[in-house]
Each structure stands twice: as structure tokens, then as C-alpha cells.
Amino acid sequence: MKLLSLLLFLAPVWAQSPNPLPNLPDETVVATFDDGAKLTMGDFKRIYAVLPRENQQQAMRDRPAFLKQWALMRKLAKLAEADQLDKLSPSKEALEYYRLVILSQAKMNAALNQITVLPSEVSDFYNVNKDRFKQVRVKAIYIGFGGKNLSEADAKTKASKILAQIRAGADFTKLVKQYSDDETSRSKDGEFATLGPNDVIPDAVRAAVFQLKEGEVSDPVPQANGLYLFRAEQITYRPYEQIRDELFTELKQQRYADWVAKTNSETIVTFNNLAFIGAIQVAPAKVK
Fold it and tell me: What's the pLDDT tens digit per position in 163-183?
């Protein structure tokens, strides 16, 4: 019997297995043990809920074997208590350790579940942080340098001249077709991408694009093999309805993190023996 694997239930894993449980009323007795104790369907559900996923699957594949092992563990635990092994090392310390693990996890789960985030708080958060959800559709003119292209200095000169024409009122799309070295965007009248603040893009591109107002053109943005001139074609924002649930979760997780940090900061330990602490650096005020 793989008793060790069943003992893993002591490590709290709250995710539920997709395996269906038998459709029986909670009061249904599913097993009677040799000491007369009865296990109901409700009891089984509560045990099942804290099993690691792999043990949930084992229990559902062979329920008689699971109940047999559970009965054996009950018997061995009672024999251990009769011999007062729960009061002797190392069992005493192991019980205390797992008690702390389970109760601390239970408190953390309860704290998370008790956090309330009002709909008005979510909408306020969206409005205050609206720039996080900005989307900028940009066109670009790309001036390459190096290799068969211009030198970097000549590319900068060319880009500056093109920018001057744009700011003097020249048609951006015509300049794309005339000057851009990026064949893909040139064939689409300079259409480059719709960018969001969290997209994986170079920092220089991010800084240039997200400070533009609609219709504005950036200064030349240097990249490894060329320079870009970006124009903000359209500025929109991800709709609130689309990201409301994400923001709710973010606010809840942030408040939970704040609670954990506060609880941790309020947990004070006085270190009484430097020889025990060893080489670890400890703030002097906490060493006595």
C-alpha cells in the first residue's frame, strides 16, 4: 500500500479535480470502519477537497482501495495515540509543523476571500489609470542604415529632412511610399501596428509612441539597423467592460498583498543569540 502518497493530503492543495464525484446525498453512509465509525458522502467530499490532485484521481479510480487505506490510517493513528506517540519526538514536532502549515494557509485563504472590492472602486481605478489601457495605432517611415543602406549619419540626416517635410504639411502616406525602407509597412501605406503599454516593444519605441497625440509624428527613433518616424493615427482605450474582471482581480490581489505585507511587518522576532544567527546580517536593534 502506498500510504506515503495518501499522507500528502497534509499539504493543502485547494484546486479541485475535474473528476466527477458520485451523485449521492451528503448523509449517505459510504463506509463503516471496524471501530463502528461511519463515513458519509459529506465526510468523503470534505476529505477529497483537501487531497492533492493526483490523490484525488487515485481515489476516484479505485474508491474501495482509498477507503481501505483511509481505514488503515485511522487505525494506525489511534494506535499511535494510544502509545502517546503524538507526545513524543519527532511526531510531536511534525504534528505541530503541519498544524501551522495548514492553519496559516487556511487563514491566508480566508483573508483573500474576505476582501471586498466594490464595482465603483473598479471603475474609479480604471479612470485613474486609463493611460495603462491606451492603444495607439501607428504608421511608420523606416530609414535603414548599415550594410547596403545609408551610413547611420546619412540616415539621421535623411530622417530629419523627412520630418521637416511632415511638419511643414507634407502628406505622410506619400512620404512613406517615397522613402520608407520597410517593404511590409510601405505596401500598407505605412501601417505599422496598434500598440499597448504592456506590449513587448523596445523602450525607445514605447517612450516615443505613447507621448504622441493623435496625428502627431515622433522625432526619429533609433533602433539597431535604422530609424523610425512614427505617426499616431488613432488613440483609443481598451473598453472598461472588456477588462473589468481583470481589474477586479488586480485590486483584490493588491489588497491581499498589502494585508500579507502588513501582517509580516507586524511579526517581530528578537534574536537572542548571535552564535545561532551565524553569518546572516541582522538589524542591530533586533539582536539582544
Answer: 999 999 999 999 999 999 999
Q: Is the pLDDT of residue 2 over 50?
A: no
At 31-70, the pLDDT tens digits run 999 999 999 999 999 999 999 999 999 999 999 999 999 9
- The answer to whether residue 79 sits within a structural domain is yes
Domain assignment of residue 39, yes or no: yes
For the chain, the domain total comes to 2
Asked whether residue 149 carries a pLDDT value surpassing 70, the answer given is: yes
Q: Which of 194, 218, 237 is the last residue of a domain?
A: 237
Residue 254: closest CA among 242, 246, 266, 244: 246
Distance CA 276, CA 66 (A): 45
pLDDT for residue 1 is more than 70: no
Residue 70 belongs to domain spanning: 3-83
The domain that holds 170 is classified in CATH as 3.10.50.40
